[in-house]
C-alpha cells in the first residue's frame, strides 16, 4: 500500500514529463521523415497547407506567423533587452533646447519592462508550441495523402470544433481569462519577489532592479536593519497556523454538533431553526464582522454592559485587565481568543449546512441494523456516524485549513483600525500580532507599497499551502469515486 | 407509563430550549443591527442595547446622498457589475465544468491539476499585479476593471458544477451521438436543460460575488471617487474613525437594506444546491 501511494505522486510527475517528451519526439519525427513541404513549414508555416490544398489554413498560418514576427520586432524588442537590468535610465527632467522647455527624458519604467517582457516570453512560448504543433499537423496531412485518405476541407475542419474538438471551443475563453488574470499576474509577482520594488523604488520616478534572494534572506531573519522582518515573520506564521488549526477545528465540530442537534427527532420546527442560523451567514461578512467589531469595541455596548455588571472591575482586580475597559479586540491575548470565538459564530452555520447535507446521505440501513442490534445512540454515533462524516468531509477539512490560512476577511474586518501593536519590532515591519500572512501582505502593498516583501511573503504562503495540500491528499486515496459507501 | 411520558416531554422541551437559546445567541448581533438602524441618533449606542429613540430617519437619509454616503449610486454600481459578472462567470464555469466532466481529451487531467495549483495561491497576490496592469490601461476605478477581475478567472471554480455533470448518465449522451447529434448540440440542448438546479445555483452564486466581496473591490477601486464604490466599500468607509459617529446608524440601515436581497438569494441558492446535489441529473 505504501509503495502504491508513493507511486501515484511519482507517476503523476513521470506522466507529465512523459507527455512533454512524446511531444518533442513527435516533432523530431515529423521533421526527419517529412517531405520538402513539411521541412519548408519550419520557415513558412503555411507551406504544408498550401501543398495539400488547404488554402484557408495556409493563409491563416501565414498571417499568424507575420503577426508574431511584427510583435517581436516592434513590441518585444523594446522591453526584453532591458529585462536583465530592468532599466538603466532614471527619469529626469532635461532641458530641451529645441522647445525651450524642461521635458522628461526617454526614461525606463522598470515595471512596464518587467510586465511586457514577461508578456513577450509568454507569447513566444505559446508561438513555439504552435509552430511545433503546426509541423506535426502538416506531417500528419502528408501521411493522410500518402495513404490516399480524405483531407478535410476548411469547412469540415471547422465542423470538428463542434464535434470531437468541442472541448477546445468550450475551454478557450475561460482558459484565456485564467491565464491573463491569474497565471501571468502570479508569474509577475514571483519575479517581483526577486527585485527591490518598494516605496523607495517606485516607477516611473525611480527604477528598481534585481536583488536575487535578498528579500527571502531578510524574511527569514538575515542581516542588518531589516532583521525585524524575520522577527515578525516567525510570529505571524505561528499565529497563522494556530489560527487556521483552531478555526477549522472549532467550526467543524461545532457544525457537526449543531447539525446533529437540529436533525434529532426531538426537534420541533427544524426548518425554522435552520433558517434562523442561516440568516447569520446570509448577511454579508463586511456587514456582520464590522458590526461585531463595534459591538466589542473599547467603548462599545458589551464593554458598557460588562462594567455595569461589575465584570470589568472583577477582571481588573484579578489582574487580567489593566485598562478601564475590557480590550476585547485591542490587546494581544484577548484579541486572539475573541477572533477565534467570533469566527465560530460566523463559521458554524455554514459547516452545519454541509454536515446536514452529508448526514442526509448516511446509509439508513446501517443505522437501522445497528439499532436493531441494540446499539446505544452514543455507540451509533461513534462507530457509524462519525467515521462516515470524517470519510466524506475529510478532504474538505484540508481545503478548509488552507482556506483559513488565507482567511482575510475575518481578521482584517475585525482588527483593522482597532488593534494597534505595542511591539516596536513588529511595528517596524508593519505587522501586528493578530495578522495572518495574507493581511500582513495586504497592508504591505496597500499602505506601504512594499511590493517586494509582499511578493516574497506571498510565495511563502503558496509553498506552505501546497505542502499541506499535497501531504494531505497523498494520505487520502484517489478521492473521486469510492466503493466503500456505494 | 406516565413517568416515562413525562421524561420524554421534558427531554423534548429541554432539547428545543437549547436550540432556542443557541439561535438567540446567534441572532443577537443581527437583532442589534436591525434595532440600531432604527435609532434616531447617528452614532453608535454604547450605553443601551436598544436605541433610546426610534425613527426611520436613517433609511430616509440613505436615499438622500451626500458626499460620504451615496447608497443609491453604490447599489446601482454593484448591481450593474453583478449582472455582467453573473453572465460571464456562469458561462465560463459551465463551459469548464462540462468540458472536464463529460468530454475526454488528452490535457484533461493536467488542466485539472493546474487548476488546483492555481487555487493555492493567495488570490490577493494575483490581484496586486492585475491592479497594475489595469492601471496601465486606465481600467482601475471602473466597472470594466472590476467585472474583469471578478469574472475572468471564474473558470477555476468549476468543481461543484463538474460534480453535478458527473452524474449525467453517459448512456444518454451516447444515444444522442448515435442519433447524429453534434457535441455542441448535446451540451446546449440536452445536458443544460437537465441541469437546471446547478445552473441556477451557479447563476446566483456568481451574482452574489460582487455584493459580498470586499478585498478585491478595495484593491481595484483604490484611489477612487466615492461615487464609484460598490456597496461593500462604501459601507466600510462609513465606519472610518472620523466618520463613525455621524454615520454608524446609517451604516446599519444600509447593511439591513443590502442584507435582505442577499439573504433571500442566498436561501434560494441553497435550495437549488441541495436539489442539485441530492437529485443528480436522473429524475425518477
Describe the structure concisely for a colleague.
Chain A is built from 20 helices and 2 strands. Chain A is mainly α. The longest helix of chain A is centred in the N-terminal third of the chain and has 37 residues, at about 110-145.
Strand order of the largest sheet of chain A: 1-2
Approximate strand percentage of chain A: under 5%
Low-confidence stretches of chain B: none
Low-confidence stretches of chain A: 1-7, 477-486
Overall average pLDDT of chain A: 78
H-E string of chain A: HHHHEEHHHHHHHHHHHHHHHH
What's the multimeric state?
Answer: heterodimer
Anisotropy-based shape of chain A: flat
Overview of this protein structure:
The complex is a heterodimer of chains A (486) and B (284). Chain A is mostly helical. Residues 1-7 and 477-486 of chain A have low confidence and may be disordered. Chain A contains 20 helices and two strands. In chain A, 32% of the residues are buried. Chain A is flat and about 90 Å long. With 284 residues, chain B is mainly alpha-helical. Chain B is 71% helix and 0% strand. Chain B has helices spanning 2-37, 57-62, 71-101, 108-119, 123-136, 143-151, 159-165, 170-178, 183-194, 196-212, 215-220, 231-238, 244-279. Chain B is globular. Chains A and B meet through α1, α5, α7, α9 and α10 of A and α1, α3, α4, α5 and α6 of B.
What's the topology here?
The complex is a heterodimer of chains A (486) and B (284).
Chain A: H1 2-33, H2 36-40, H3 47-51, H4 55-79, E1 93-96, E2 101-104, H5 110-146, H6 154-160, H7 166-192, H8 214-219, H9 227-263, H10 270-282, H11 285-295, H12 301-308, H13 311-317, H14 332-360, H15 364-372, H16 377-405, H17 408-415, H18 424-428, H19 437-446, H20 451-475
Antiparallel strand pairs in A: 1-2
Chain B: H1 2-37, H2 57-62, H3 71-101, H4 108-119, H5 123-136, H6 143-151, H7 159-165, H8 170-178, H9 183-194, H10 196-212, H11 215-220, H12 231-238, H13 244-279
Helix pairs in contact in B: 1-13, 3-6, 3-7, 3-10, 10-13, 12-13
Amino acid at each position: 500500500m505504501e509503495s502504491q501511494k508513493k507511486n501515484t505522486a511519482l507517476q503523476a510527475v513521470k506522466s507529465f514529463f512523459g507527455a512533454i517528451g512524446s511531444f518533442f519526439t513527435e516533432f523530431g519525427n515529423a521533421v526527419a521523415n517529412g517531405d520538402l513541404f513539411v521541412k519548408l513549414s519550419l520557415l513558412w508555416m503555411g507551406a504544408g497547407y498550401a501543398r495539400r490544398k488547404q488554402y484557408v489554413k495556409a493563409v491563416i498560418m501565414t498571417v499568424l506567423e507575420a503577426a508574431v514576427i511584427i510583435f517581436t520586432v516592434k513590441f518585444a524588442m523594446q522591453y526584453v533587452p532591458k529585462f536583465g537590468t530592468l532599466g538603466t535610465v532614471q527619469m529626469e527632467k532635461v532641458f530641451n533646447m529645441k522647445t525651450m522647455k524642461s521635458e522628461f527624458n526617454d526614461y525606463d519604467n522598470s515595471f512596464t519592462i518587467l510586465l511586457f517582457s514577461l508578456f513577450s516570453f509568454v507569447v513566444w512560448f505559446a508561438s513555439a508550441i504552435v509552430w511545433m504543433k503546426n509541423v506535426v499537423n502538416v506531417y500528419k496531412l502528408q501521411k493522410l495523402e500518402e495513404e490516399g485518405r480524405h483531407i478535410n476541407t476548411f469547412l469540415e475542419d471547422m465542423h470538428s470544433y463542434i464535434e470531437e474538438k468541442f472541448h477546445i471551443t468550450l475551454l478557450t475563453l475561460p482558459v484565456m481569462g485564467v491565464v491573463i488574470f491569474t497565471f501571468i499576474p502570479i508569474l509577475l509577482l514571483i519575479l517581483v519577489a526577486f527585485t527591490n520594488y518598494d516605496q523607495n523604488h517606485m516607477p516611473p520616478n525611480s527604477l528598481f532592479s534585481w536583488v536575487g534572494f535578498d528579500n527571502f534572506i531578510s524574511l527569514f531573519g538575515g542581516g542588518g536593519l531589516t532583521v525585524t522582518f524575520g522577527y515578525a515573520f516567525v510570529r505571524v506564521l505561528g499565529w497563522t497556523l494556530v489560527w487556521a488549526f483552531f478555526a477549522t477545528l472549532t467550526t467543524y465540530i461545532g457544525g457537526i454538533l449543531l447539525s446533529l442537534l437540529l436533525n434529532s427527532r426531538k426537534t420541533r420546527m427544524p426548518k425554522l431553526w435552520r433558517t434562523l442560523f442561516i440568516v447569520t451567514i446570509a448577511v454579508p461578512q463586511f456587514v456582520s464582522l464590522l458590526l461585531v467589531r463595534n459591538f466589542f469595541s473599547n467603548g462599545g455596548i458589551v464593554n458598557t454592559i460588562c462594567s455595569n455588571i461589575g465584570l470589568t472591575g472583577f477582571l481588573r482586580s484579578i489582574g487580567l485587565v489593566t485598562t478601564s475597559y475590557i480590550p476585547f479586540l485591542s490587546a494581544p491575548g484577548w484579541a486572539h481568543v475573541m477572533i477565534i470565538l467570533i469566527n465560530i459564530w460566523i463559521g458554524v452555520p455554514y459547516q452545519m449546512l454541509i454536515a446536514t447535507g452529508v448526514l442526509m446521505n448516511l446509509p439508513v440501513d446501517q443505522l437501522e441494523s445497528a439499532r436493531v442490534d441494540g446499539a446505544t445512540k452514543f455507540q451509533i454515533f461513534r462507530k457509524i456516524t462519525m467515521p462516515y462524516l470524517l470519510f466524506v468531509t475529510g478532504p474538505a477539512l484540508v481545503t478548509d485549513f488552507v482556506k483559513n490560512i488565507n482567511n482575510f476577511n475575518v481578521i482584517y474586518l475585525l482588527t483593522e483600525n482597532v488593534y494597534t501593536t505595542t511591539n516596536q519590532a513588529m511595528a517596524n515591519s508593519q505587522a501586528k500580532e493578530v495578522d495572518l500572512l495574507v493581511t500582513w501582505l495586504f497592508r504591505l502593498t496597500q499602505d506601504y507599497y512594499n511590493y517586494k516583501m509582499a511578493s516574497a511573503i506571498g510565495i511563502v504562503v503558496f509553498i506552505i499551502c501546497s505542502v499541506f495540500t499535497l501531504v494531505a491528499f497523498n494520505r487520502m486515496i484517489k478521492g473521486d469515486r469510492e466503493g466503500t459507501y456505494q | 407509563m406516565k413517568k416515562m411520558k413525562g421524561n420524554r416531554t421534558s427531554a423534548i422541551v429541554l432539547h428545543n430550549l437549547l436550540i432556542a437559546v443557541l439561535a438567540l445567541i446567534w441572532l443577537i448581533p443581527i437583532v442589534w443591527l436591525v434595532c440600531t438602524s432604527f435609532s434616531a441618533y447617528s452614532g453608535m449606542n454604547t450605553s443601551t442595547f436598544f436605541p433610546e429613540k426610534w425613527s426611520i430617519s436613517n433609511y430616509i437619509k440613505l436615499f438622500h446622498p451626500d458626499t460620504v454616503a451615496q447608497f443609491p449610486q453604490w447599489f446601482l454600481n454593484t448591481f450593474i457589475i453583478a449582472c455582467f459578472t453573473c453572465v460571464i462567470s456562469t458561462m465560463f464555469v459551465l463551459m469548464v465544468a462540462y468540458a472536464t466532466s463529460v468530454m475526454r481529451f488528452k490535457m484533461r487531467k493536467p488542466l485539472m491539476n493546474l487548476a488546483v495549483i492555481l487555487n493555492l495561491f493567495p488570490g490577493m497576490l494575483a490581484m496586486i499585479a492585475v491592479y497594475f496592469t489595469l492601471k496601465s490601461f486606465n481600467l482601475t476605478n471602473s466597472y470594466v476593471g472590476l467585472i474583469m477581475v471578478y469574472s475572468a478567472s471564474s473558470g477555476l471554480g468549476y468543481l461543484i458544477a463538474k460534480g453535478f455533470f458527473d452524474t449525467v448518465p453517459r448512456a444518454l449522451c451516447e444515444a444522442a451521438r448515435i442519433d447524429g447529434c453534434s457535441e455542441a448540440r448535446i451540451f446546449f440542448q440536452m445536458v443544460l436543460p437537465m441541469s437546471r438546479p446547478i445552473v441556477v445555483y451557479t447563476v446566483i452564486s456568481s451574482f452574489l460575488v460582487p455584493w459580498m466581496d470586499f478585498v478585491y473591490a478595495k484593491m481595484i477601486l483604490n484611489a477612487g471617487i466615492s461615487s464609484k464604490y460598490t456597496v461593500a466599500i462604501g459601507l466600510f468607509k462609513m465606519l472610518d474613525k472620523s466618520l463613525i459617529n455621524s454615520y454608524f446608524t446609517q451604516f446599519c440601515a444600509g447593511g439591513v437594506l443590502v442584507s435582505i436581497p442577499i439573504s433571500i438569494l442566498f436561501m434560494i441558492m441553497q435550495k437549488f444546491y441541495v436539489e442539485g446535489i441530492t437529485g443528480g441529473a436522473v429524475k425518477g
